[in-house]
Specification:
With 90 residues, this protein is mostly helical. The longest helix has 37 residues. The chain starts with 14 loop residues before the first helix and ends in an 8-residue tail after the last helix.
Length: 90
């Protein structure tokens, strides 16, 4: 059996290398949380998951509707106060 390669002493990490390592650690933590959530969902009954998804769909739909109304209101206000209503004065 061949001997494992001898590890040579490593120089300390640069600040950029340390930031990358920290990001990988954060990514690992987030993936572990996601994995735990998937495991939790897999253990729950399908009907309960579907009910939760329906509730989420309703909330998302409400947020979308409110966003559209807000954008419409802003555009309308800009047209009224900005004189960009497309009506030619003569």
């Amino acid at each position: 059996m061949p001997d494992p390669p001898q590890s040579q002493p490593q120089a300390p990490c640069t600040s950029l290398e340390q930031e990358v390592l920290d990001e990988y650690a954060r990514l690992l933590s987030n993936l572990q949380k996601l994995s735990n959530q998937f495991a939790s969902l897999a253990d729950r009954p399908t009907a309960e998951v579907l009910d939760g998804l329906r509730l989420l769909e309703r909330k998302t739909s409400l947020v979308c509707t409110l966003l559209k109304a807000s954008v419409y209101s802003i555009v309308l206000q800009q047209q009224i106060y900005g004189g960009e209503d497309g009506v030619e004065e003569g």
